[in-house]
Amino acid sequence: MSTFNITRRGFAIGGAAALLAANIGGAKAAGLLEEIKKRGKVVVATEAAFEPFEFVLDGKIVGYNMDILAYVVEGLGVPMEQLNLPYQGILPGLLAKKFDFVATSNGINEERIKKYAYTRPTGSYQTVIVVRHDDDRVKTLDDLNGLVVASQLASSVQPILEAHNAELKAKGGAGYAEIKLFTAFPEVHMALASGQVDAIAIASPSAAVLMKNVPDTYKVATQIGQSDYLCWLTRPEDIDLRDFINAKIDELNDSGKLKELQMKWFGFEMKTPKDGYLPAGAF
């Protein structure tokens, strides 16, 4: 049975964290998958603030990705220590060997493929622009000129907004009045509801759940960028672990269980291709 050690902010500092980093750091010679089994514990990082993929309910981390993670960890045959961390610390923490892998939703971009090994996608999404339910100003992307737009700091959405802002200015527009970036997506949602910002950019599955939960508060105005996939991450040198995770996702897909989980958490199916989802040069 998995055991959860939930940390809401930052990494643990001190002797225990140093020992954990040393244990994980020593995994390279034998292969991380083998080392995890010898160690008798797998350490996983999650940002549990992306409903319904991963979020906290009644003090526990739950969600679509967490159901997948439970299956992966069961296959490892060891207990799990799960760290709930701000997204801004997760990617550098992985490279610093603070944990074994990242089980949280990560979009694919050119910068990240040079540093991290992506798993098979667990989901797909389209970035959408969401506004308040009673705001009719935004019907196209050009209508974002002069407005305050928000998303999550260091997310895959941030460069999409920055590129679009530059595009608006290149076409002679004013561009956004401001891009506001928040630590977590729930803060982004609240900023829109409270009137701090005019529009937010979030993933379409999250937007669907958001509008289901509070239908009189938000609505989708338009979409931005291309459809993309959401994956987990390992370090490039830990391909053995990445391939193990992929094999477990393959099993869920082939058995039909992945579709069941998507219907359970989203009410619709998502594309999760086995290959062809990464750009050239990816690990």
Q: Helix and strand layout, with pairings?
A:
Elements: H1 15-25, H2 32-39, E1 42-46, E2 49-50, E3 54-57, E4 60-62, H3 64-76, E5 80-84, H4 87-95, E6 101-107, E7 117-118, E8 123-125, E9 127-132, E10 148-152, H5 157-170, E11 178-182, H6 185-193, E12 199-203, H7 204-213, E13 218-223, E14 228-234, H8 239-255, H9 257-265
Parallel strand pairs: 1-5, 1-6, 10-11, 10-12
Antiparallel strand pairs: 2-3, 3-4, 6-14, 7-14, 8-14, 9-12, 9-13
Q: Count up the helices.
A: 9
Mean of residue pLDDT? 91
Domain module count: 2
What is the gyration radius calculated from CA atoms?
A: 19 Å
Supply the CATH architecture of the largest domain: 3-Layer(aba) Sandwich
CATH superfamily of the largest domain: Periplasmic binding protein-like II
SS-based class: alpha/beta
Topology order in helix (H) and strand (E) letters = HHEEEEHEHEEEEEHEHEHEEHH
Model regions low in confidence, pLDDT < 50 over at least 5 residues: 1-22
CATH class placement of the largest domain: Alpha Beta
Helix content: 25-40%
* Overall 3D shape: globular
Distance linking N and C termini: 31 Å
Task: Quote the CATH topology of the largest domain.
Answer: D-Maltodextrin-Binding Protein, domain 2
Q: Assess the beta-strand content as a share of residues.
A: 15-25%
Q: What profile does the largest beta sheet have? A: 6 strands, mixed
**What is the total tally of β strands?**
14
Based on the model shown, name its key terms.
single chain; 283 residues; alpha/beta; D-Maltodextrin-Binding Protein, domain 2; 2 domains; six-stranded mixed sheet; five-stranded mixed sheet; 9 helices; 23% strand; disordered N terminus
